[in-house]
Amino acid sequence: MIKKKIIYLFIFFSSIIDGKDFPSWIDSTPSDDEYYYGIGRVIKSERDYESLADEIALESISKQIYSSVTFSSNRKFEENDDKTVSNTYKSKSKIYSSSFIYGAEKVDSEIFKNEYFVLWRLDKEQHLEGLKRNKEKAISRYKEYLKIETEKISDRLHYLIPCYEFLYGMSGMNTSTELDIDLSIEIPKLIKEILSSLTVDVPTSVYEGIMYRPLEQEININVFYSNSTSNFQKINVPKIPLIIENSQGDASFTNRSSTTGSKGNAVFKINVISPEFRFCEFNAYIDLAVFRIEKTENKDFILELQRLAADRFGTFELYAEEVEQYDVGHILFSDEIENKSNLSLLRASFRTELTKDGTYNIVMENEANDLIDEWKKDNRNCTDQSCQLEIGEMLGVKKLIYNKISFNSNEFAC
Where are the beta strands (DSSP E) in 254-311? Predict the structure, then answer.
């Protein structure tokens, strides 16, 4: 009788768990005047399912917020003294991503069967206050920008890029100022004007090297400024960040990012030429993201900066020759190490080092080692030159690398 009660009790509790009442928000997104709400739903088998669900929920919130900052290119400007004071345009509404959702909070999460659910919300008033603060920061940066001399390109970008980030994605907020300027239009226009006056120059556009090896020459990239205010003279521009990206092929760089020095040039180095590509092409871009002051990962804004600078780049090519390769024999020998596993590990380490730059190709290593093992059984040690020549002739190689390993409890020596 007791057993039956225990079984019934187990079934009862099981039914409570199985029939658990889940929050109403799973079936119906909450709605009120105080918050925006977003729900994320992801199968648990997905990699990083919690992060994916968070992103979906935040994207849902973002769709409820209209962005008026980014418009299609079909727009007209009315300018006064080189300042944009008004604009008319045919806009394409853009839903900005979770990168611009300030003050959102996770409210709840649930797991049901194989699915994960999460609820996020955003206080409308706090979000609006955050946008107002960003607008004030943008105005402050713009006023500082106005004090910068025209030829100080890097300093101008130092103020304009953060100013643009404060404005980018402001959900329909009026971005006009007491200066009678619509900053959401003026700032990207100024950035584009600066970029259009810059040239990324590659003095040496073609390089030649050998696979597996470093490129002997340094790669120099210059940036200069030229427009009507400079009488179209080429003026070297310091403190401009550059980044190298692959267009075709690949190589290992000591540094893919650098900044132009006082003479307007930046230096890059290739430390390993890839053995996979005989031809490589690389582009050096102006990296506007370096001028950001926000610490958050703002993917959409970084993409926007890349779009603005997409036509400001210099190109260089790399032609790689195959390394001259030699067939060699390799013998690793020790009277003191009896453990074959240890010997195998040592041989593998030597093999990796000997072949990593492509110069040597080790042939018939197993056969050579088997022969050494046979000689050891006959108490014959291959330590003299005639023995090594005999092995070299057997392997059919002109070069033989011979390692004799000495061993004590603390270290190997060879």
Answer: 257-259, 265-268, 270-273, 279-286
Can you tell me the distance from the alpha carbon of 172 to that of 175, in angstroms, rounded to the nearest whole number?
9
Query: Going by DSSP bridges, is the β-strand pair 313-321/265-268 parallel, antiparallel, or unpaired?
Result: unpaired
Question: Residue 382: its pLDDT value, please?
Answer: 64
pLDDT band at 98 (very low <50, low <70, confident <90, very high): low
Q: Comparing C-alpha atoms, which of 38, 55, 37, 57 is closest to residue 47?
A: 55
- Cα 403 to Cα 389: distance, rounded to the nearest angstrom: 14
Weakest mean pLDDT among 61-70, 115-124, 240-249: 61-70
The pLDDT value recorded for residue 6 is 45
Which stretches of 205-312 are assigned E, i.e. beta strand?
206-210, 219-225, 235-236, 241-248, 251-253, 257-259, 265-268, 270-273, 279-286
Beta-strand relationship, 360-362 and 326-333: parallel
Given this model, what pLDDT does residue 5 score? Answer: 47
The answer to whether residues 253 and 271 touch, using CB atoms and an 8 Å cutoff, is yes
Single-letter code of the amino acid located at 93:
S
pLDDT at 412 over 80: no
The pLDDT value recorded for residue 172 is 52
Reading the block at residue 345, the tokens are 């590990």
Residue 313 CA to residue 310 CA, distance in Å, equals 7
Is the model's pLDDT at 89 over the cut of 50?
no
H or E element at residue 240: none
